[in-house]
Amino acid sequence: MFWTDWGSSPKIEKSALNGTKRFAIVTTNLTRPYGITLDRRNKLVFWVDNGMDVIESVEYSGSNRKLLFQRRGMFFWGVTFTSSYLFINEWRKSWVSQMNAYNGTIVNNMTTGGIFPSGLIAFDSSLQLAVAVTTCPVLRAPTDGAVLGCPGNAGANYDTVCQFTCNSGYIGYGSQERRCQHDGTWSGKEFVCQTYMPRNAGIVYRSITAWNIQRLTNPKFEEISKSLTGEARPDCKLDILILTESFCNSKVPDSYYYILAYTLHGKDRQGKLGGGILAYVNENLCIRRRLDLGTNDIEALWLEVYPHKSKPPLLISGVYRPTSAKREYNINLGKNIENAYLANMELIVKEELNYDFLNSTCFYKQNRVKYLNLNQMVNIVAIPASTACLDHIQVSHPERMCIVSVINVGLSDYLPVFASRRYNQWQEQGPCREKKHLSFEYRNLKKIDKDNFIKDLNEAPWDAAFVFEETDEIIDTCKAFDLINHDILLVKLKAYGVDDGNLQLFRSYLADRQQYGNINGCTSSPLGITHGVPQGSILGPLLYLTFINDLPLVISNSTVDNYADGTTFSSSAHCTLGTMAVETNLQEDIDSLCAWSAQNRMVLNARKIKSILVTGKRLKSRVRGSSLKLQANGTAIEQVVHQKLLGVTIDQELTFKEHEEKLFLRATGLSAKAFDLINHDILLVKLKAYGVDDGNLQLFRSYLADRQQYGNINGCTSSPLGITHGVPQGSILGPLLYLTFINDLPLVISNSTVDNYADGTTFSSSAHCTLGTMAVETNLQEDIDSLCAWSAQNRMVLNARKIKSILVTGKRLKSRVGGSSLKLQANGTAIEQVVHQKLLRVTIDQELTFKEHEEKLFINCTSLTIDPGGPLSMSYCGNQHGTKCNFSCPIGYRLNGSSVITCVAPGNQNPGVWNDSVPTCEVVTCPVLSLPTYGVFLGCNTNATEMLYGTECWFSYKEGSVAMGSIVRRCTANGTWTGTDLECTVSRRPCNSPLLLVSTYGSVVAVDLDNNSSHKVTSNLSEPLALDFHYNLGYIFWSDRTESNIKRSNMDGTNITVIHNNVQSLGLAVEWNSLQLYWTDYDNRRISLSDLEGNNRTTVLSTIAPGDIVVDPHEG
To answer: Fold match between 136-194 and 203-424?
Structure first.
């Protein structure tokens, strides 16, 4: 499309119909360009300038500008083209001039019967010829991969984009995105999927070079090609070369820039010339283009790299920020980098932000990425003619970078910046060979040199502690609470939905804290705290658990339990498999834990990790092996014979002998869950009593208020009802607020030990066996009465029917205890006594035999398997009792069956069974579309018998017919077609062409160009201005200056319809092929489009002062 802009910098611009590939074709010697028209056959643009009183032309490309006519005192307004002639009108003049379009000669002045034309448009069938459909050949899905967006069993139309992906365990080479071009060929290079590891295991990823090439000309390309292929410097073999400001565009195919033994990835600047990023990657590297991290408006190219013998991938990017970038661009760029940061990978970002890093005031004031805890590695001037450092390499792990330098190569004003990432350094040669860590060791404390000791402390590389191979090099003094990185914590809080206001509150809570040391009254200077959360605070455990909340996502084999004071992994297998099965599962998960710890900047202390092999008495003899050989970061994990877990000492045989020796007689009372019963006013009073200030108290009040609930039965929904009690279950704050509410309960319990949990409360009382049950019963009853009184004071409803009691004696003491029952009651209702009870996932019985628990512990179902090459995905879930397996299908497939199945054990007997069968993935298909009478089928990008998800079909209509509905239909993921059915009828067009349609005050007039006669098409209008039509549909469109709307009618003037309101449009253009209406919106400074019914309205692009507009769908 082409349009005029008469803003402060007047110009004639063009772009693709979707607003991309924007380019100003005329920018000089313009004052007030308004009317514009096209000679589509000869690809010429004509316009009138009523500030310079001229009529001019130029080719579509912007070349061969020609002055056709100039006369002082004229106020040209509209212009239209047909049959080699231009028709021009002046504002408020009652004639139209006819001019030879190629030599500027005026051949006729046509009177308009006393009317004053405002807008005009030639009405001729030759001006709206059908557009030929360009098709590209079939693109098949790669072996071990899939094609997305365009089914690979038929050709595709022009501008169709196909994307590719590889199956799990494979890496792609080539162009991950390919587009059908004007010439019927596909852009890019064939996409191939290969195995996960590089084809040549001897290739080790080492180096990245980033370079602002300032337009990749032929001589520059030849020099770069020689360098990469070793012809110029055989010793220089780069792994990745990133070029910015390449000035590449879609007119030059990617194949033009290919270099032997390197794959090419590129991103062109959208909308105008300049910019652009190219990345050359050594073909021996495993690499994946991350299209999901890219956006059209940001010049950023993201690559996921799998280095040699390294399981965790790197995320490497080339980023360019234009000097003309505005605030919105900077914000979007920061969000783009932040999204990549949230991918939890090691980041290496090559940026050219056009901020001077050496000018710290400017750099840190403007640069958003400093909040992501990335480190700038370049502090060298890379532009010899300048003193500014505009090239930035931001990394998440600076200690792993070996060399960052500037190479003196004179192909550009900028010098290339070289960086090397250290991998397997003890095996490498050259610049990245092994570097010993600084360390110190003192054995004789009598001869310690204080000054040298302090010097060693200062020089020790504490910042590199996260990549030490041996934990001996780290002085271990911290609990995990102290290791939480504030920046990562804030990023996770944002990812969990904390808005910017509350995020700032948490940032303030963590910032500006200090610590100091005190030895024998000598106090050190205070030191700022940049890591950790405050221990002993209410928010401390919550923030810690939030930080590690994503840990279970990387653990695939074990059950993970996170607590504020520790994390447990549990894995089980059938006894006949021996310890090897459990050991393999646990070791894989420990490796994942180590990787997660490194990514989250946590130090994992392997010496504090303990393992225990639990078999039970009966199964001990049947288990092959008795040891677990596990390690973390190369350090062996200690195996123990008993371990305390949640207050219970567990041993290998589940005898609980160590625990029983500390136990005399115990009875336990469990209270009901009460999340929904918490009184908000009492909770806020308690929060204030615990030290929450007024500001945060208001935050909690807002969090609890204005919540509603409703009921739904068989689709019938009740009216919403306000919630005045309870805390939100399933939320992060819910358990914390509940525990805060009941935190004072132990203060009223005088005889029992109280354990408060988010899902229940236990009372435990014990006495010597010789005293019988009476002593325990008396103590418990007194405390239950206190509990009832506390519940009434705190407006809690105590449900006595849900309270259970159990008398625990153990085997040896059972015969010595006088009595076997506990007669307890709450509010006059007897409390039920049970013989076994589940407590913290452990089923306890009276004699502590744990028989019921042990029977359930080793109940397994048959292992589930799926086709690894099929579309069905399954989360690794094991096969233990209670395990839930989740299934899903990719887009384009429909899940047939249950998405979750569970391993259950009917009657608590082995073996277990799955409660449902494994689901399947069905291909989503849409029904075959029917062809209407007078319609033309242009084809689909698949065959007609199987319309898969993503299939697009195109329709048109025969000349002389009228079409209503969608001419492009797409099969969606739910098996339905986009758009509406096409209906074609005989045209309503009552008059012959050629005509000239003219807008004037109150009406639209049709002027016959053969006999200069005219008649009104519509009347009783306000002030119609811009005009256009759809010939085959018999529609005419106009904008109304007074009513600020756009209207449509039939060519006979009937059925006038308002299709858009609140629009001050100076130009309209109908795209007759795809049934779209474009218009300029002068007040809102933009160009918009919709369909011809006024639906699907959207903004195409923004501009300063848009005037008239025309389109040529033949050019795309």
So the answer is: no
Residues 685-707: tens digit of each pLDDT: 888 888 888 888 888 888 888 88
CATH number of the structural domain 203-424: 3.60.10.10
Beta strands in 767-831 (DSSP E): 804-808, 825-826, 829-830
- Mean pLDDT score of the chain: 76
Query: Cβ atoms within 10 A of the Cβ of 940, count?
Result: 21
CA–CA gap between residue 211 and residue 188 (Å, rounded): 22
- The dihedral region occupied by 647, where left means phi > 0, alpha psi between -120 and 50, and beta the remainder, is left
Which DSSP state fits 290?
-
Q: Give the strand order in the sheet containing 753-757.
A: 753-757, 760-765, 666-670, 804-808, 832-833
Q: Domain 925-986: which CATH class?
A: mainly beta
Helix (H, G, I), strand (E, B) or coil at 780: helix
**Residue 1's closest CA among 1098, 1099, 1103, 1087?**
1087
Q: Following CA atoms 208, 212, 213, 214 in sequence, which dihedral angle do they give, to the nearest 10 degrees?
A: 170
Tens of pLDDT, residue by residue over 105-145, are: 888 887 766 677 888 999 887 788 776 666 788 887 888 77
Residues 370-417 have pLDDT tens digits of 446 677 777 666 666 555 555 678 888 877 776 676 666 666 667 778
- For range 277-285, the mean pLDDT: 84
Residue 716, C-beta contacts closer than 8 angstroms, at least 6 positions apart: none
CATH, range 2-124+994-1110 = 2.120.10.30
136-194: CATH number: 2.10.70.10
CB-hemisphere CA count at 13 Å for 760? 15
- The alpha carbon dihedral of 1100, 1103, 1106, 1110 has a sign of negative
The model's confidence at residue 1086, banded by pLDDT at 50, 70 and 90, is very high
Domains of the chain, residue spans: 2-124+994-1110, 136-194, 203-424, 480-518+525-616, 666-671+744-856, 873-923, 925-986
Is residue 182 predicted with pLDDT exceeding 60? yes
| pLDDT the model gives residue 39 | 93
pLDDT score for 195? 54
pTM higher than the cut 0.70: no
| Predicted local confidence at residue 35, as pLDDT | 92
Q: What's the topology of domain 873-923? A: Complement Module; domain 1 (2.10.70)
Q: Work out the number of other CB atoms within 10 angstroms of the CB of residue 518.
A: 8
